[in-house]
Amino acid sequence: MLALQITEVKTFMNKLFLGDSFDAFQLSEAVFVTFNTFHIDGSLQKDYYSSEELDTQGLSQQSWSFWRQVRPFCLQLIRGKHTPLEFKIVFRLSPANVEKLLAQAQLAINPSDIDGLFLNLHFCQGTLTCTTGSALRFFTLDKTLEHTWDGLVRKFLQKQDIAFC
Fold it and tell me: In this structure, is residue 84 part of a structural domain?
């Protein structure tokens, strides 16, 4: 697990809510505390769509909403005169990107054995913290996947010009 403090919060917020930097991540959950507390479950509700919509929009194999699909609603929750009191966003790496990570790192793990590679964002009292997490469907003492994921998150933040310490 990696824990980083984002040093330029305003820049990060612009990239998170106004840009497309995080759009390839899937949303596991989000909680926004403003004048009320708003909870968002990122689970895709396939019954909402017709079978034609599922096929044409490529949602048939998708279990979670992508950030790009939910971001406009989240932006509306925090937009206004006041800064949110707090928010928590839990992203997960998409299955396609999990497969890429495993291939690039030459890790002999079956993608179906990975329950999730997570990027957790927590904003509270002006401080923004970013932590990583991983969940496997089996027990292992080998931390190679976790360390690989941590390194990828660092590279991602650097590529996005997001300052952290």
Answer: yes
CA separation for the pair 129, 122 (Å, rounded): 5
- Kindly report, residue by residue over 127-145, the tens digit of the pLDDT: 999 999 999 999 999 999 9
Give strand pairing partners of 136.
Answer: 114
Q: Measuring CA to CA, which residue among 118, 99, 141 is closest to residue 25?
A: 118
pLDDT of residue 60: 87
N residues, the chain: 165
Average pLDDT rounded to a whole number, residues 19-39: 98
Query: Residue 56 belongs to what H/E stretch?
Result: helix 51-56
Beta bridge partners of 41: 29
State the residue range of the domain holding 27.
Answer: 3-159
Looking at the domain assignment, is residue 46 inside a domain? yes
Judged on CB neighbours under 10 Å (0-12, 13-18, 19+), 91 is buried
Task: Give the C-alpha separation, 77 to 89, whole Å.
Answer: 13
**How many domains does one find in the chain?**
1
Half-sphere exposure of 49 (CA within 13 A, CB side): 14
Asked whether residue 165 is assigned to any structural domain, the reply reads no
Tell me, yes or no, whether 145 lies in a domain.
yes
Q: What is the pLDDT of residues 43-63, one digit of tens each?
A: 999 999 999 999 998 888 899
